[in-house]
Amino acid sequence: MPDAESWARLALHARSGRCQEPRVCVSTPSARDVIARLGLAPHPEGGFFRETFRASATVRAPFGELTRSASTAIYFLLRAGDFSAFHAVQSDEVWHHYLAASLELHTIDAAGQHERIELGADLLNGEQPQWVVPAGVFQAARVIGEGFALVGCTVAPGFDFADFSMPTRAELVARFPGLRDVIEPFTR
């Protein structure tokens, strides 16, 4: 039996209920392993996803006479070389970094203001573990470096594909001609 000080450092293992020593590192599975274990499917904007939560409570959407789930959440995985194409959602969206590589998240608001955010675990170098993209703001993402990134996205009021738009490259460049260099790599 461990002494009181040792006991305080031990954790109960979720499956066995036995004490275990703290872990100082976590193994990183491959993108293929994560896609399979989490049951992810291709997403229309790029990457892979699975909805993990849809609130049973409903709210009136602020953008019309519509009722939406109060909130939804997904897992979202991007591999190096893939990208999440510029798109907009009519609700606020919170990105949460979970695992592996960092992401660069690009946003363009209605006034044409572009912002680049690094989403990841390297807080000392300016990365953010979560970021809010306000309703109606265009957003796109890709992995920084190699590997993959697993993130989560929480949307409130809840996501509905009817509230989703993904303009073409030509449409976005026509609307924001000064941002062609940002738009082209993140559109199809």
Commentary on this structure:
By secondary structure, this protein is mainly beta. The chain has one domain: Jelly Rolls (Sandwich), CATH 2.60.120.10. 13% of the residues lie in helices and 40% in strands. It is built from 4 helices and 15 strands. The strands form 4 sheets. The protein has a 6-stranded antiparallel beta sheet, covered by helices on one side. The chain has a 5-stranded antiparallel beta sheet with strand order 11-10-13-8-15, with no helix packed on it. The protein has a two-stranded antiparallel sheet with strand order 1-2. A hairpin with a 5-residue loop joins strand 10 and strand 11.
Query: Would you identify the CATH architecture?
Result: Sandwich
| Class per helix and strand makeup | mainly beta
Distance between the termini: 61 Å
Share of helix, binned = 10-25%
Output the radius of gyration.
19 Å
Shape call? globular
The number of strands is 15
| Strand residue content | 35-45%
Q: Determine the mean pLDDT.
A: 91
Which superfamily, in CATH terms, is the homologous superfamily?
Jelly Rolls
Report the total helices. Answer: 4
* Oligomeric organization of the protein chains: single chain
